Amino acid sequence: MQAEREHILPEFVRVRDVFHLAWPITVAMLSYTVMGVVDTLFVGRLGTGPLAAVGLAAIASHLALAFPNGLMRGVKVTVAQRTGAGDRDAAMRLGWQGVYIAAFFGFLIAALAAAGPEWFEFLGASRAVGELASSYFGVRVLGAPLVFGMSAVTAWFQGRGDTRTPMVASLLANGLNIAMDPIFIFGVGPVPAMGLPGAAAATVLSFGVGLIFLVWRFLPEMADTPRAPRLDLLRAIGRIGAPIGVQWEIEVGAWVVFSAILASVGEVELAAHVMVIRIISVSFLPGHAVSEAAGVMVGHAVGARRPEAARQAFAAACKLSVALMFAMGVLFVAAPSALTAPFGVEPEVAAVAHTLLIIAATFQVFDALTMAAFGALSGAGDTRFVMTAGILSGWLIKLPVGAALAMPLGMGAAGAWVGLTVEIVVLAGVGLWRLRGDAWLADARAPLADEGAGEAPEAEAVTADGEIAAK
What we know:
This protein is mainly α. Helices cover 79% and strands 1% of the residues.
């Protein structure tokens, strides 16, 4: 078992070790970013109303998908910790448990496809924008089983330290989505123009192709692994993943309210917000990829009972993330017009977007620190703290500050984004404070329950507390 731990985790974790795991995740997330930008470019040609509608529908989709996708992080963390501990049996069995969770929530969320335009009118959209948003949302959530399936298998591969297989799946899926977008949105040959529902259909089909590839790689490795559901393993996933799922759900809820504030200000402000989110995702998604890689390495360190390696992984992730996001912030300040020009939006939308890009540049480094810190905390299993900090900051800082500046003080979208900046700065401070102590590394410092017991790995199981217990 010790030999396997040393193979997974280097003697001293450096930036290059985090980069080795992070670059495939970065490429995968950048492909999603490119897909989102291309979607926005095509939808932007339909007008300001459809652009605002797809922004609202995308947020509503994230709200519906947030908890199950967050729960899948429990698969990644538990697999990473069991891999670091050398417990291959539990790591493999956890893969099947993730598939069962994905299937359950996938078909549950798909039932929301019947949602009508009144949902989006409640968020402040006009009747016309609400109908457009509803047409996109209905198709998008029908693909929930495919989305969750891809998320579960991706989490299993990443937890084992294989970030390249999910990268290939995402490149395949997102490349296909980009190719299908103009065909489904505007119509080509025998394919009729479908507008926003066509954009959603292209996304759903692309996830299906990505899942087929992952399953093709997943099944041969799992051929000899028992497939029966295991309550202890499911509880282990839930213990770590449920707080992340709750956090994501409530944070997305805060983001829905945030977007509703902008929708109430006007379509121009909302459209500019949607466009800039697409642009800056080029910076924060690579930062998020570094955070994911840090979480995997910290998970391996916790499983191997090496707290010093967990701290090294966080420090390396900080250096890499800050470098990436600082460079992007400089670009936002230096060339805002070049970044917004390809979208072909009206001058008033572009003017608001330029202001938002300047604000985004101010929080890049703080966002890099936040993501690295909370990625490390999640990898260590400290997800309840992450949940509490994320929820409180969103609802007690971002929303009240952003709403006050946007409407009563008349700053519009710029005021709302100032509220977002304040939240990110506070989260960075809170995350760094938590990492200075030892509470987040409690699992890494605790001795393995089976040490000295003389049991073989096959006679071990992950309990509800995520530890090893001899049967």
